Fold each of these.
Amino acid sequence: MKPERLVSSQAEQLLGWWQTDGRRDPAQKPWMFKSDGTWPLPEDSLSPYGIWIAEVMLQQTQLSVVLPYWQRWIMAFPTVEALAAASLEQVRLQWQGLGYYSRARRLHEAARVLVQQPWPRDLDGWIALPGIGRTTAGGILSSAFNVPEPILDGNVKRVLARLHAHGRPPSRDQHLFWRWSEELLDLRRPRDFNQALMDLGATVCAPRRPGCDQCPWRDSCAAYASGDPSGWPVVEERKPLPFQVIGIGVVINEAGDVLIDQRLEEGLLGGMWEFPGGKQEPGEPIEACIARELMEELGIEVSVGEGLITVDHAYSHKKLQFVVHLCRWCSGDPKPLASQQVRWVRPEQLKDYPFPAANARIIEALLGKLNQTNQLERPGMGS
């Protein structure tokens, strides 16, 4: 019986802290509140739609970043029916900037399933949907319906690793971390407990310089007892990220249209639009790289002109440097030899297409350049 008393004591400590110091503001988590602006009681249910969208957006992304995206998303697609009826292009455009773009496609796919059935009320029902794993399903079920399902996101893993001073990376012992999360869960108030646990990790048990003085579990935390809680979680040895230079061509024709292509569906940036280009070969001048890539990918000849911008961008698995040049289209009908489709668009229409985050600065530089050129070409300018 002792472990049960300890768990109950820890749950009470955490919930007591959360009542006064947790993120219980509807301006921070609007999806967690009832329509009258109050926090739900254990017997209350919430709309699972907004919670589902928030849970997917919050994967590996901070709450402060997610909030404006969630608000814009709900304005564009206020119901699961609206999301299911939207085009995939519209969905990607709303997701643009959040990264992990395959999640937008899976939300769209799941919405088309959900409009044909009731909202799932168990773990298996949610996990059967595209893009839903156990922790996302547990977060939705506990938040929307107060179902006693544990969660195990990055914040929770960090809290548990420190609580137990676990000597291995959490990824190596997922089953153990799931057991710890389940053992701690308050079965009477799983919604509140899971929110409190995530809030503790996000606001107190931070990755660097944890605020142990404010932690309700300080006295039972093995990492705190060690004198250096920042030493946990134990992390895998990280290898240096590979680096690659990418030559990008912003191709403009005589009419002033800009050439863009849509990536194939698979991969990290599947389905997103981009300016064409590719990897620079060893010893290859960047201008030659751009000309070669545009011939290989689109079957066109271009005249590579002045540099437009250089953008450094890091992904979780590699670092890229995009070296972007303006190009004049010379010959060849663009063909999607390595993409879904290609399209000539007016520069002002670029905002209507979902681009990866790294392309935002390219678009900004292009529009600034074109605006500057137009200013100089006006009568009385530049003379």
Amino acid sequence: MFNELEFWKLCFLIDYFVKIRELIRKSMSKPVEIDSSIRTVEWKDNKVIMIEQTKLPNELIFVEYDDFNQVANAIKTLIVRGAPAIGVSGAFGLGLAVLQSKATTKDDLLSDLEDARKILFATRPTAVNLGWGLDKIMSIAKTGETVEQIRELVISTAKKMADEDIEINKSMGKNGSVLFDDNDTIMTHCNAGALATVAYGTALGVIRATRESGKNVKVIATETRPIQQGSRLTAFELKHDGFDVSLVPDTAVGYSMANGLVNKVVVGADRIVKTGHVFNKIGTYQVATMAKQHGIPFYVAAPLSTIDLETKADDVIIEMRKGSEVTGIGDKKTAPDGIGVINPAFDMTPPELITGIITEKGVATAPYEESIPKLFEVNN
């Protein structure tokens, strides 16, 4: 049995440790301070470091992984998202796999890498950048002569891909900035910013470059249900960078355009096929349709790594996500049990709705079957 003095000592210790735990928690998840120069994903000390995007905008948490299976789970659960970002993340995942492998021969190491590639590729089937990043690493790995050389090639190539992503985004931004005028109000859908890439962004990179060219622009961001990338990520990024940004419900896109609130639209993409069909976050097709109805230019910004010259539009797999993303917000249910849910992650926007496709090599315009292949010939 405790005497009274021991009882109060115990209470003091409990209170002390509770306060210490709270201070540690706050120090690890303090309000976000982030800008377009911070890397969404990077390689450091043989680990992959990522911003945990499901916690934004309320908490800034960096997670680190030393197992490619952890990277695969991060891609699947949207800890990291955005086509360019998951392309680099997949490459980094193979970097971890090459370190994890116990192989002592080239053939065994390549076999282990192929097993890891399959696991990583299965996480997000629609975004072409993931397959691009994985295939690029596998191709370079096959050129190595020894196990050690393959390890060095895989890791150095993945790190170079991350560095190149930033420069590609800046070139894309410069190419797109000439399409926007002073005092434009630009609508964007989902998040195609620094958080969707290694840094700077695709669609938001174009908006950033437009401002950097001396033009004054405003932005309208759609909330982008059901995961709310527009409200959680895009509005947050732009506000932090000092833009005049307004948030609208997805259902207010038509209202905004009909009432003259929007001059132009720019979005990102997860896959573009050679016919100019664009696969992007669900709701993009609706935004493009409304833009066409109201005579508003609709642009897509994406690197060449997002363009798939081989696959036909009808053959692209649209990822279907779990119904709970629609039937609730966090732990709170917003729909009754026992109902069906249709929750596609992406939709397809046909080329006739698209004014231009902005890339690091220039801007493609209709007819896209002619202009898109020409982009790959520039400076090659």
Amino acid sequence: MKRSTTIGFDARYAVTNSEEYGAYSRLVVEALAKATARYGYYRAYVAANKPHAEYAKIEELHNVETMEPDGAVWRACTLPWRMWAISNDLRNGDVELYHGLAEHIPFGLASRNIRSVVTIHDLAFLHEKNLADTVEVLIKRLYMSQLLHRVDRIVAVSECVKRDIVGQFAIDPDKVDVVYCGVAKCFAEHVEESVRSEVRERYSLPERYMLSVGKHLSRRKIEHVIQILPLLDHELHYVIVGEATTFTQRLVRMTEELGVSDRVHFVRGVQGCDLPAIYQSSSMLINLSTYEGYASSVAEAMTSGVPVIAARGSSMEEIAESAAIYVDDDNRDELIGAVRSVLDDEQMRSDMIKVGRRLASRFREEVVAYNLLSCYRRVGVDVRG
């Protein structure tokens, strides 16, 4: 009889975070647990068990156990626990492989015969042009270099990230597997108009709007979209989903100066279960970022059946392929033309949606699980279903 294989995860974001890292962590743990329900056993290591609402369904799975620091000292000092002390917990728990889901792996795994895999989401700091950030960038580079050379295997969330890993840190390309982050199944499910209307009312959203979603709004050139609003149909609004920052404060001032403050809606605190309705109520998603490790908002829009306008020369061309219209991020006329095309050309819009949904099959949870299990096998850990 085959014994169970135990995998450990750095799951701190799964219980605390509602954005990219949190969504990815929850999707991976749940997808793998379901794919290997007979022989896979998973320990999700968290700094503090204050579960995000969407983590509850993971705790119900019979082969997932949530692990916290043992003792008041480690609960109060979680960083040293995550960096060093956790290795003893992993050994005592018979963990064969530890997967850092958010660019972190503790020290001491190799000496305890525990294999290690780390997921790298984004290396945007390598492309920073602000000289004031030079020291910070150097520290990040040093940290990332030792991490990448220390682990047994690396998961890059796109070919774009893999190129940076190989080119910037002299990593053997055969050590890096590209596994897309995946999109939760709820985005592929049709949301009834009654539910969409309820969600729009809850967040005070208009009937007709363009959409941008994400944590790093400053990368997405939101200001370029706001600047073209006066030149578009006045019934068309712009909804921006993301956390409030000093950057969003500048954007608010811009909307006031341009006289479009009534057409720009800054939305924060959105529950993950409401995002599919917000996507499916929109006319299009716009993401003008010129660097994105993995464009999760683009993948979610494609899965939701929403046309995408994206910047040229970024990972979004890898993610969306022919399902998007690409523009130069600073070309106002080109952006206006793309928006009008999506709104006015029904055939093109229909084709974009159809191609997007077909390509979105790459982001299914089952595909993510299969590809990660293949990665684990490459370091000698075989988890059967």
